[in-house]
Design goal:
With 285 residues, the protein is an alpha+beta fold. It is 19% helix and 36% strand. The longest helix has 14 residues. The chain has a single domain, classed as 2,3-Dihydroxybiphenyl 1,2-Dioxygenase, domain 1 (Roll), CATH 3.10.180. The strands form three sheets. Strands 11-6-7-8-5-12-15-14-13 form a nine-stranded mixed beta sheet. An eight-stranded mixed beta sheet has the order 2-3-4-1-16-19-18-17, with helices on one face. Strand 7 and strand 8 form a beta hairpin.
């Protein structure tokens, strides 16, 4: 089942601010295996298929280092098509010598964690077949167990690493928020996502169409954490794709009823969540 197409709502693109465009370009191209689609003096747009943007980095004027313990990006997650692709990526990353932050088995998926040179978190993962996910009372069962690297490497087909597969997509995004209840009201009551996993009062996973999560929300940087300054490296914004304009208009009505700030620009709706994170709603229909 494809959880990243209509009628689901899903993350399509991520835009990041970095302190050094050339350094970030080297990382995302050589270490992570993205392709350059477009480049200017201060910006790079990356792709995996040679035509579709997936990640944009921008070096703004007077940008500062990523501020600690703020709201915003915890990580964005690149979803690979197969376990064999994940094995090949892990082998490449280990051979590159670039530091990894962890590797986990989440039952529904297997994941590798790292960060770019500015500290922007990244997850690279592959899903297990959705038929094998276990659900209980509407909640999907997840865990954070050590990844069985030896078993995963048995999936590697021996091919030379040539970058991320062209079928790679943004699988989900995980955000630090200031208040979990306010975030739930915005993303679930407003944007229409469903809760699929809850970790007490610290974290919430939400999705569309019974995916294990399109968005993660946590208060691990502290309840009441402040948003980063405009000059801080980190998340600029991310894009959510809605199946059609009608559903987008219903979303606008729900958000207007909650007195949320909305800015409409052409086919896009620009929003700021209760924790100060920017996002854009649009549709491909």
């Amino acid at each position: 089942m494809n959880f990243h197409q209509s009628p689901n709502v899903y993350v399509e693109q991520v835009h990041l601010k970095v302190t050094n465009k050339d350094r970030a370009l080297s990382f995302y191209q050589e270490i992570l295996g993205l392709q350059v689609l477009k480049e200017s003096r201060t910006m790079v747009v990356f792709t995996v298929d040679g035509k579709t943007p997936i990640l944009t980095i921008l070096e703004p004027e007077q940008v500062t280092a990523k501020e600690a313990r703020r709201t915003g990006l915890y990580h964005f997650a690149l979803l690979l098509p197969t376990r064999a692709d994940l094995a090949a990526c892990l082998k490449h990353l280990m051979e590159s010598g670039y530091p990894l932050q962890g590797a986990s088995d989440h039952l529904v998926s297997e994941a590798i964690y790292l960060a770019d040179p500015d500290g922007n978190g990244i997850e690279v993962y592959a899903d297990r077949p959705s038929e094998k996910w276990e659900w209980s009372e509407g909640m999907v069962q997840m865990d954070t167990a050590p990844l069985d690297v030896e078993e995963l490497f048995q999936q590697w087909n021996g091919e030379v690493w040539r970058g991320l597969p062209k079928e790679t997509i943004i699988g989900h995004i995980h955000l630090h928020v200031a208040d979990l209840h306010a975030a739930q009201q915005f993303y679930c009551d407003g944007l229409g996502f469903d809760i699929v996993t809850r970790y007490g009062e610290q974290a919430l996973f939400i999705s569309s169409g019974n995916y294990h999560h399109h968005i993660g929300l946590n208060t691990w940087n502290g309840r009441g954490a402040q948003p980063p300054s405009e000059k801080s490296a980190g998340l600029e914004y991310f894009t959510l794709i809605y199946p059609n304009k009608e559903e987008m208009m219903q979303t606008i009505k729900r958000l207007n009823n909650r007195h949320d700030s909305i800015q409409v620009e052409g086919e896009e709706i620009k929003l700021i969540d209760p924790s100060g994170t920017r996002l854009v709603l649009t549709t491909r229909a």
